[in-house]
Amino acid sequence: MNVSIEPSVRITARGLTRRFGDFTAVDAISFDVAQGEIFGFLGANGAGKTTAIRMLTGLLTPTAGEASVAGFDVYTETDRIKRNIGYMSQRFSLYEDLTVRENIAFYGGIYGLSGTAISDRSAALLDRLGLGHVGGHRIGSLPLGWKQKLAFSVAVLHDPRIVFLDEPTGGVDPITRRQFWDLIYDAADAGVTVFVTTHYMDEAEYCDRVSVMVDGRIEAIGTPAELKDRWGGASMDEVFVLLARGAA
Amino acid sequence: MVAIENIHKTFGLTTALSGVRFEVAEGELFGLIGPDGAGKTTLFRILVTLLVPDRGTATVDDLDVVRDVRALRRRLGYMPGRFSLYPDLTVEENLTFFASVFGTTAAANYDWIRPIYEQLEPFRHRRAGALSGGMKQKLALSCALVHRPRVLVLDEPTTGVDAVSRAEFWENLAVMKDSGVTILVSTPYMDEARRCDRVALLQNGSILEVDRPAEIERRFERRLFGIRARGRRALLEALREHPQAHSVFRFGDSIHFAAAGADLRPELLGTYLEERGFHEADVALIEPGIEDVFMERMQRV
Amino acid sequence: MTFLAFVRKEFYHIMRDRRTLAVLFGMPAIMMALFGFAIRNEIDGVRLVVLDASHDAATSSVVDRLRASRYFEVVAFASERSDVEAAFRAGRALEAIAFAPGFEEKLAMGSASVQVITDATNPNTASTVLAYTTAVLQDFQREGFREAGTARGPGGIVPEFRMRYNAELKSAYLFVPGLMALILMLVCALMTSITITRERETGTMEVLLVSPLHPVQIIAGKVMPYMALSVVNVATILILAVTVFAVPIRGSVALLLGECLLFIVCALSLGILISSRSGSMQTATMVALAGLLMPTVLLSGFIFPIASMPEPLQFVSHAIPAKWFLIVVRGIMIRGVGIEFVWFETLVLAGMTALFLGVAVRSFNIRLE
Question: Can you give the pTM of this predicted structure?
Answer without folding.
Answer: 0.85
